[in-house]
């Protein structure tokens, strides 16, 4: 929490790694047990991965299994759990019904009183065809968000993002320029893209913004046949990995020193040096080349 001097103290962050299935009630039980385990390890802030409540590719089955936010039993249970354990509980995302034919991929930050203090709907939809034949069209099932979201924790300002957002660095620079010192990237990266890019991208977002990154993930072979990469990460503002998960469900914990943000940004003050550029058409090729030689 905040020290008497007004300077933020260190805090303990925990990431819950899961392998969510197709039944929200079962996923809730798993998540709750891991959240309690994280709190038992002294965590002040606990983050769960993207799609904590359900991993379902079928549009019909997904929409049949989820409810609007105000009626969602998982969200109500997580609010009770945050209050019971007196923690900041960041549910990386839940699929909640946004309309009769679309869901929202929505993060929730819940305070130690059980109040929802921030919501964020994933902006960038994962619509890709991978080399091994995997194909995803997230925009068919989910309504994209339109706004970046910042919220204050006792230890710093938190920027909320989700999974595929990771590939859009302008979002993180905007969050950092607006005061974010902590960046959240709960995810369900595919195994193929995770093996290729996960560590590089997460560390890059930390380094280029001089911010801590906390990224809880899904990992392993899921009930719906999808395989996710795992490797939940906590990375410091200098790009050092403080804690890392494997592919199995579990909890990782790291001590976070907010002062490291100030130190990293002082060493490499890139946030102060950023400029906007006008994009122009390429200059025409020169019609001749003038060579100047030194006179012997």
Overall domain count: 1
Work out the number of β strands.
16
CATH fold field value: Nitrilase/N-carbamoyl-D-aminoacid amidohydrolase
Q: How is the largest sheet built, in terms of strand order?
A: 5-4-3-2-1-16
Number of helices: 8
Which range best describes the helical content: under 10%, 10-25%, 25-40%, 40-55%, 55-70% or over 70%? Answer: 25-40%
CATH class category name: Alpha Beta
Shape: globular
Structural class: alpha/beta
How would you characterize this protein structure?
- This protein has 296 residues and is an alpha/beta fold.
- The protein has one domain: Nitrilase/N-carbamoyl-D-aminoacid amidohydrolase.
- It has 8 helices and 16 strands.
- It has helices at 24-40, 59-65, 73-85, 138-141, 169-177, 191-209, 259-267, 270-273; strands spanning 11-17, 45-47, 88-99, 102-110, 116-121, 127-129, 135-137, 149-153, 156-160, 182-184, 212-215, 219-221, 227-229, 233-235, 241-244, 250-256.
- The strands form 4 sheets. A 6-stranded mixed β-sheet has the order 5-4-3-2-1-16.
- Helix 1 runs parallel beside helix 3.
- The longest helix has 19 residues, at 191-209.
- It starts with 10 loop residues before the first strand and ends in a 23-residue tail after the last helix.
- Residues 1-5 have low confidence and may be disordered.
